[in-house]
Amino acid sequence: MAQELLGVKLVNGFHRDVELPSTIRLNGAGPDQTNAPHLTRPGAGSRIVYASRAMAEIANKIERERDSEAPMLITGETGTGKELIARVVHDLSSRQGRVFIPFNCGGGPRELIASWLFGHQRGSFTGADRNVKGVIREADGGTLLLDEIGDLSLDLQTLLLRPLQEGEVHPLGAPKPIKTDVRVIAATNRDMETDIQSGRFREDLYWRLNVSRIHIPPLRERREDIPLLIEHFLAQRQKDAGKQGLWLSDEAWTLMFDYHWPGNVRQVKSVVYRLVASAGDGELIGPERFLKEIEGAAPPPSAVTAEDKFIIDARLSHHERLEELERQSIIRALNETGDNITQAAKTLGMSRNGLKNRIERLGIKIMNHG
């Protein structure tokens, strides 16, 4: 596929040359609009803001496989943008303009999930007073995103094999299976290979879904995307809120670039939106406002108490405060999980290896290396 080398100018003096597919275009630069590259298609509503090589490789893959009908598995930490990638895959495919349905596989009791997924006939069980098609049939002709596929129970994983293998679904109470034409994309923040080994996820279903694979790296591993995302959300929220002229000081830019963003893109969006909400027209947002937003964040997953509050020495430099905040967040997660790195990583929305690297860098001592 034809490619071109684009020099992408980043804010605050950061620059990076990235190799991007020919379908990528640059918008005009300026504080009131993003200069980020976008993967897009005329008429498509979804776009990816990025400048990193990692995301450029994902864009290339999507472009190469745009006509594929094969199932796809998208993996990545919480908040990395798995649903957005799925929407872009749909928008660039031959199914563009048809229905795209995201479905959370962990969003309810097993019986409800089964009914929502596969459908049921009226009278098939007590309380079934009408026919329900289920999202697989609702997505006929389009794309179905099975989000949090790793949370699906084993028996429902078994039932999911038929739509993938045979292109048909058998609603509860129906006399026979019904043919469907659905592109299935699955997404998860879990380590699927580990779940297979532990018996939590069916290996045959995994291989049915893993025909095409996209892994979205956490934001801390593609830091060159951070300024563009901040700029994008800043412009987007100002427009929506009817504000103008808001911008970040150089020190605020640097702090936000250096922050580890455990909540990934979702956290960037949330923090920027809150900064815009509390700022006035034309205001230059300084580092203290950013630190206040981060230090005031509720600690997951337990309820906030007086003892939960982060204690940060105000005499520290901004970067030292940021590092201390990160240290306390990790220590809290480790304390809540008995120093279990795997569980603490899930609490923080990070990968296990990513958390291990942070623990080593910050010199945090732990007893349990699980």
What is the CATH first-level class name of the largest domain? Alpha Beta
Gap between N and C termini, in Å?
44 Å
- Helical residues, percent: 25-40%
C-alpha geometry: globular
Q: Return the CATH topology of the largest domain.
A: Rossmann fold
Q: Would you identify the CATH architecture of the largest domain?
A: 3-Layer(aba) Sandwich
What is the assigned CATH homologous superfamily of the largest domain? P-loop containing nucleotide triphosphate hydrolases
**Rg value:** 23 Å
Number of strands: 14
Count of individual domains = 2
Low-confidence stretches: 1-45, 298-310
Q: Mind sketching the topology for me?
A:
Elements: E1 3-9, E2 15-21, E3 24-26, E4 37-39, E5 48-49, H1 53-64, E6 72-76, H2 82-91, E7 100-104, H3 110-118, H4 135-138, E8 143-147, H5 154-166, E9 168-169, E10 178-179, E11 183-188, H6 192-197, H7 203-209, E12 212-216, H8 226-241, E13 247-248, H9 250-258, H10 264-277, E14 284-285, H11 287-295, H12 318-336, H13 341-348, H14 352-362
Description:
With 370 residues, the chain is α/β, with parallel strands linked by helices. It folds into two domains: 67-216, P-loop containing nucleotide triphosphate hydrolases (Rossmann fold, 3-Layer(aba) Sandwich), CATH 3.40.50; 222-362, Helicase, Ruva Protein, domain 3, CATH 1.10.8. 40% of the residues lie in helices and 15% in strands. The chain contains 14 helices and 14 strands. Strands 7-8-11-6-12 form a five-stranded parallel sheet. A three-stranded antiparallel sheet has the order 3-4-5. Residues 1-45 and 298-310 have low confidence and may be disordered.
